[in-house]
Amino acid sequence: MTLESVAGLYNYWVVIFLMMTGFYIVLARKNLIKSVIGLNIFQTSVFLLYITMGKVEGGTAPIVPPAIAAAQAHAAHGSDAGHAATPHVEGAHEVAHAALQHGGELASTTTEIIYSNPLPSVLMLTAIVVGIATTALALALVVRIREDYGTVDEERILELDRGE
Amino acid sequence: MIDAIFAHLPILLIVMPLVAAPCCVLTGNGRAAYALALVVSLLTFACSITLLEETLVHGVVRYELGDWSPPYGIEYRVDIFSGFVMSFVSGIGAIVLVYAPLSVRDEISESKHYLFYATYLLCMTGLLGMCVTGDLFNVFVFLEISSLSSYALISLGRTRRAPLAAFQYLILGSIGATFILIGIGLLYQMTGTLNMGDIAARVPHEHGPRTVLVAFAFLTVGLCVKMAVFPLHTWLPNAYTYAPSVVTCFIAATATKVSVYAFVRIIFEIITPGFAFDVLPLDTELMLFSLVGIFIASIAAIYQDNVKRLLAYSSVAQIGYMLLGISMATPTGLSAGIVHMFNHALIKGGLFMVAGCFALRLGSVQLSDWKGAGRTMPLTSLAWAIGGLGLIGVPLTAGFISKWLLLTSAFEAGRWPVAALMLLSSLLAVVYIWRVVETLFFAEPSEAAANATEAPLRMLIPTYVLIGATLVFGVWTSYSAGIARQAAIALLGGTP
What we know:
The complex is a heterodimer of chains A (about 160) and B (about 500). Chain A has helices spanning about 5-10, 10-30, 30-55, 65-85, 85-100, 105-110, 120-150, 155-160. Chain A has about 160 residues and is mainly alpha-helical. Chain A folds into 2 domains: about 5-60 and about 115-160, Orthogonal Bundle (Helix Hairpins), CATH 1.10.287.3510; about 70-105, no CATH class. Chain A contains 8 helices and no strands. Chain B is built from 22 helices and 2 strands. A two-stranded antiparallel sheet of chain B has the order 1-2. The radius of gyration of chain B is 21 Å and the shape is globular. The model of chain B has no long low-confidence stretch (mean pLDDT about 90). Classes of the chains: A mainly alpha (about 160), B mainly alpha (about 500). The interface of A and B includes residues 39 and 49 of A. Chain B: It comes from Aporhodopirellula aestuarii. Chain B: It is found in: Cell membrane; Membrane. Chain B: This is Monovalent cation/H+ antiporter subunit D family protein. Chain B: It is a multi-pass membrane protein.
């Protein structure tokens, strides 16, 4: 493993560092709130892991570029309908014409555009929602524990339980 | 019309409880919410039975969500194995709800009843969803739906220890779920798909990159936390002990079983037994952990004075039996593991229901308060005795069927030490069941027990339905062991 490959994978190192940090906080903590924070860091590292794997080198956001969208609109409406169209479509036409002026590059750009993979990001939206629900529930439980025991220190709580 | 409904059964199974849950919240009334939850859970049970029937006659049922063909859309896929698991999960869900109202009124404050039933339905949605889905990420989502709602359910317990137990479960459960998420991510990275069938076809096994190995490791450890395999079981005793009785009945009977289901799916369909058991030593490890778990948890159960905690430790031991069967990876062993999921769900559900009856009448689940209750509550105590016999594995009970299959498979594989240890461990079950029976029938009645009356029929009848089922399925096995065998053969790649 050369230095280059180690440095090239830097985002994975960030993921591993965050993961271990979060995991350590969860295991080593004695304060309930801190363990929730640790859990959050741990989950965040997984979000980064997924987003990293969705990135394609040189890829752009998986949204159809305006030039191509306009060209399609152009093809759909035909040149006659274009004159009567709304200003929005009119504007789009100009973009399309501008693109065409570059010596018919449009056809080649359509095939050459590289997109990033959107699916991991979408999955992470779900995972973030799950993470929020978990955090909210955990904090609600901590509030109840605090009301009943008067402390959020786990050792103190266990002591109180033993004393019963 | 009927045909149209029939074609959408797999999604109805999920959508009905999922939609009914917010409706329960909207009613804002305990009784209305209960009626809705009961109707929906009975309908869900009918759906799963129909689906199981369908898979038995016509084979795998596939359903494309929103008409998007896989892999673009999510596919729901019901085969014999998932049909079997979802049938007993929804069945027990319905029976526990029939049993619930009196116990819920006793243990949960009136203002929270409608929320309780809503959360209960959500938990059921998650568990059934894990069975029905054919998409790996969807498994994670449903797992989290069921887990989050079970944390909330556990925290409803009467004592102040309930929120703490729920919190400890939440921390461990979330770590487990996040491990599963990492595993799924790495598998996606290797295969570019989330559909379980496609992953299974594409994932490189032998000489594959290390990523696959790491993914398997994360998935295995994550699911072991959820299954409460020894030594990752530490969340379970507290959670089962301090949760309200009804919640314990439902979760103990179903939640860990569904995780075992997901584990079996992943091992046998994605990791493949050839890689997991031949290349990797997962079978030896599972066998070791389950045997050690069976002994330590059973011995711990003997020393408990709280009956719910005693049953919780016994649950950890019983998970060991299931994994023991799975680790054999032969048709007999695997079907023993699968049928024990079902039998144990019946037995443990029934026993926790008995504990709930005593909790209602005696106000306690401490063994010392149960002294002599057999004289004033003979029917409830008898239910404990019958259920206990099932847990030990006495012939003519369901527990015997699974232990017999396990023993057979151990002998087939020539592992006689495993068989000997299993028999020995059953003796430990005799000890802890007998301790309770002795207290119930032969001790001088405590004051509370002497003044107690028999549990109400509304709770006794569902209890006896489950306890009776353990006797029925101990004799008539074509719908338990028979289906489990078909499922096992299908999982091992043969034709039933």
